[in-house]
Write a structure and sequence with these properties.
By secondary structure, the protein is α/β, with parallel strands linked by helices. The chain contains 5 helices and 7 strands, in the order βαβαββααβββα. 29% of the residues lie in helices and 29% in strands. Helix 1 packs across helix 2 and helix 1 packs antiparallel against helix 5. Its main location: cytoplasm.
Length: 156
């Protein structure tokens, strides 16, 4: 990735603000959400989908592997690969059918478990817990210069 930005998410409002920026700049492509259990990957995704215009609940796809959304005529797929035992399971569940959808947004939690079955990321969001259980450090890797400038203004 060409750019890297480090942010501190000190509270829910910071997470919502970040989700707003992401929603303004990323409506398609592949995003990896990396972090330990409880780091806030699904919470960030929930706010992001809401900022894109989703009305209603955003469920964690931990047991279903994927939650599909249609938001303002755009397809969004939220994958959680935590329970995946073998990347080939994605092929068996028909991941190619999802990935063939043009101009869709693909959000992958636990992408390391997807191996070669999932595409390379356009953006990587790495959420890290801190000693303060409410604060997260976020490292964002990306290639988009405009988004980089927006995030750089928020960087700590």
């Amino acid at each position: 990735m060409q750019y890297s930005v480090q942010l501190s998410l000190n509270n829910e409002q910071d997470t919502q603000t970040l989700a707003q920026i992401l929603a303004q700049h990323i409506a398609q492509g592949v995003v990896y959400l990396i972090g330990d259990l409880g780091a806030g990957k699904t919470t960030l995704t929930r706010y992001w989908l809401q900022k894109l215009g989703h009305q209603g609940a955003v469920k964690s796809p931990t047991y279903t592997l994927v939650e599909p959304y249609e938001i303002n005529g755009k397809s969004v797929f939220h994958f959680d690969l935590y329970r995946l035992n073998d990347p080939y399971e994605l092929e068996l569940m028909g991941i190619r059918d999802y990935l063939d959808i043009e101009n869709a947004l693909f959000l992958f939690e636990w992408p390391s478990k997807g191996g070669e079955e999932i595409p390379q990321a356009d953006v990587v969001l790495n959420l890290l817990k801190t000693e303060d259980e409410d604060v997260r450090k976020l490292i964002i890797e990306l290639n988009d210069a405009v988004l980089y400038e927006q995030l750089q203004a928020k960087a700590v």
